[in-house]
Amino acid sequence: MSRRHNAPPAALTAIQVKCLGALLLAVQLPQAFYIPAWAAAFGLLLVVLRLVIERRASAERNRLLQRVPSYGLALVALATTFVLRQDFGYFFGRDPCVAFLFILAAIKFIEARSPRDGTLLVCLASFLMVTPFFYSQSLFAAVATLPGLLLLAASLQLLAPPAGIAGRKIRFRDPLRRAARLLMEGIPLALLLFVLFPRLSAPLWGLPSDLAARSGLSNSMRPGMISELSLSDAVAFRVDFLGSVPPPQQRYWRGPVFTHFDGSEWTGTQRWPTGRFVPANGAPTVLYTVTLEPHYKTSLFALDLPAGPPKATDQAPEGVGLDLAILTPDQQLIARNVVSQPLRYDQASFIRSSYPAALGAQLRAERSDALDLPPGSPRARAFAVELRAAYPDDAALATAILAWFRTQPFFYTLAPPLLEDDATDRFLFESRRGFCEHYAGAFVVLLRAAGIPARVVTGYQGGEINPNGGYLIVRQSDAHAWSEALIGGQWRRFDPTAAVAPSRIELGLGGALPADDRVPLLARVNEGWFKGMQLAWDALNHDWRRHVIGFNFVQQQSLWRHWQIDRWAAWQMVLAGSLLTAAWAAALLLWFALRHYQRDDRAATLWNGLCKRLARAGMPREPHEGPVAYAARAAARWPGFGAAFAVIGESYAALRYGRLGTATELRAERARTLERLDHAIAVLPRPRALRESAGS
To answer: Number of folded domains in the chain?
Structure first.
């Protein structure tokens, strides 16, 4: 009794391995910028290593792959998990899991042997292709997925070839060409669904916030923090104004407010009762839309003083924006959720440099917090007492301090000396070199020592108008700190940095710092060609976010109203979409039929042209003569071109009368036969040369 043995699984062919390797590299490279450098290098190295092994001879390749045991790769995966846990400090989060998937796909590629392994790699690559959108939904992120999308479709074709093609030698460009054609054919359907398919008024899914530290304004301030942040060209947010743009000296974007000071660090209060929006009192109102980049904190930014709650642009027109953020008594906008995705919200603000303080118990609590000073800074305290004796009026005393900053040899710089003990005294009376956080903090200390309640406000100041789109770009290099003082029942803004370096407010960071300071490239005043290109790309990317990524429920409803689609019933929209889809499919089928007809017509055109050429050369075709016989007679008359005539006769006979294979492979075979016919006819000389050669 014979036993049946299971057939061994088919091995991956060389072209399948190369296509899978190209697919992994295409989906890894866009993600490599968002994971640790060692993880990116390790994952890419494993993929390249397998491709290098694949170039070896078959026996040597099999020997090298057999030396890599599965348990060894499992140990590498476990070691990777441990290292990622140590690197991030946690494992179950977005960033470490994405990095682990990055390396896991490369490990699987090392051990891939069969088409089943290849199919699993395609699944892993599909997940990895999506991960860059966890970090950025820019136009570049979308374009970067196109190579991976094409290679994914090509890999599926190679792993499961149609009947009749399996076992035949396939060129790498053939599945890529078919994938590109399918992609182009699907674009109109994708656009149709993008416009007509009902969009949700809220995201379908989301990711939990990661625990890693992020760039941007912090929830505390110590000397050097904002100056380090100002070295970054990264965009904090963009602003589209409804109307004219305020001048630079009015662009104070309010963020975290710090009241508590321990001698070295400023922090905010954790008591966040709901504040009240201040009245206009004749101040101009500015309407604008903010596109805030993810900063993984809860701060929202508004110009000067918010006139009302922010309203997310994906809310219905009748919706209320109170769910998006709350307003604290110190006029901070605090989002109810961490900003982990790009956020667009509409905001209205009053251009005011002061606003009324709270009343009753809230005022007493604010005064107490804003007068608290830790021990230390004896020289600053003594100087404040001296000024108080000379200026009994609070407003006059604050103005006198600003004048002192302006007249004394203070310097505005990104590289101040490190001050440790009694940092405020040493800054005010020794180094006199600092950035905005030094001046704002020292100014508040002097005011408190003189008995005036004061606090530090951080945010951004200024911004750059992009001439390509007319919107404002606020970068991390525009981070700024200023002061507020409670004078005459009003919280009034004072900016001591403007007293030392007024060009910082008028021209931005690049116009205020010395030429030898490390000013970020895009913060420089002199615009070069690189900055012009960057601004053009930023405008294109901003339009992408507004009109594609930001195409939400409200915008879709507005577009439907503009096109008068909203008058249709749901079944009418479904019917219209189905008819358009059917029309597009019919157009594609008609196009394929025309191409097939043109291919047949091309063969007849080439053959008829040859017959005319040979007739002019003195050998017309007889009515009963078929293509093979006519070509054989021509070969006997012109033996120097016998090989060409043989190819011509056989090729045209096959195209005209023969069936060259199954229906699946027929199209490709006919194209190759037509190409051979064309090349063979092109070899023949002109009729006059044929006559002369026949006569000789």
So the answer is: 3
Residue whose entry in the numeric block shows the structure tokens 């490990």: 107
Q: Which of 350, 327, 212 is nearest to 279 (CA)?
A: 350
Question: Do 231 and 188 share a structural domain?
Answer: no
Please identify, among 478, 510, 533, the residue that sits at the C-terminal boundary of a domain. Answer: 533
DSSP codes, 388-399: HHH--SHHHHHH
Pick the catalytic residue: 210, 346, 478, 495? 495
* One domain, residues 516 and 624: no
CA distances from 191 to 100, 136, 172, 185 (A): 34, 22, 30, 11
Phi, psi of 481 (to 5 degrees): -135, 140
Average pLDDT rounded to a whole number, residues 2-10: 53
Active site residue 304: no
Model confidence at 460, pLDDT cuts 50, 70, 90, reads very high
pLDDT digits (tens, 9 = 90+) for 67-117: 667 777 888 889 988 999 888 888 888 888 999 999 999 999 988 888 888
More confident residue, 395 or 342: 395
Does an H or E element contain 442, and which?
helix 436-449
Distances (CA, A) of 458 to 226, 255, 271, 301: 9, 5, 18, 10
- Catalytic member of 425, 438, 478, 480: 480
Q: Residue 484's pLDDT is what?
A: 95
Residue 627 pLDDT > 80, yes or no? yes
Q: What is the pLDDT of residues 278-297, one digit of tens each?
A: 888 888 899 999 999 888 88
**438 plus 522 within the same structural domain:** yes
> Residue 160 domain-assigned?
yes
682 lies in a domain? yes
C-alpha distances in angstroms, 148 versus 160, 183, 185, 217, 659?
18, 12, 18, 36, 37
Looking at the structure, do residues 582 and 643 belong to the same domain, yes or no? yes
Q: Looking up tokens 């009694």, which residue turns up?
A: 422
The residue annotated as part of the active site, out of 436, 478, 538, 542, is 436
For the four alpha carbons of 329, 295, 477 and 548, in that order, the dihedral sign comes to negative
Q: Tokens standing for 363?
A: 């005022």
> CA torsion, points 180, 183, 184, 187, in degrees to nearest 10?
-160
Q: Does residue 248 fall inside a structural domain? A: yes
**Alpha-carbon separation of residue 407 from 317, 383, 402, 499, 500 (angstroms):** 53, 16, 9, 9, 8
In this structure, the strands spanning 433-434 and 411-412 are parallel
Q: What percent of the chain has pLDDT over 90?
A: 27
Identify whether residues 270 and 141 lie together within a single domain.
Answer: no
CB under 8 A, 24+ apart: contacts of 62-70: 65/111, 65/113, 68/110, 68/111, 70/111
Residue 548 lies in a domain: no
Full domain range(s) for residue 504:
220-533
pLDDT at 580 over 90: no
Asked if 495 is an active-site residue, the reply is yes
517 & 603 share domain: no
Residue 233 and residue 158 share a domain: no
361 and 400, same domain (yes or no) = yes
* More confident: 514 or 370: 370
Q: How many CA atoms lie within 13 A of 507 on its CB side?
A: 11
Q: What is the mean pLDDT of residues 455-468?
A: 91
Please give the structure tokens belonging to residue 472: 């404002």
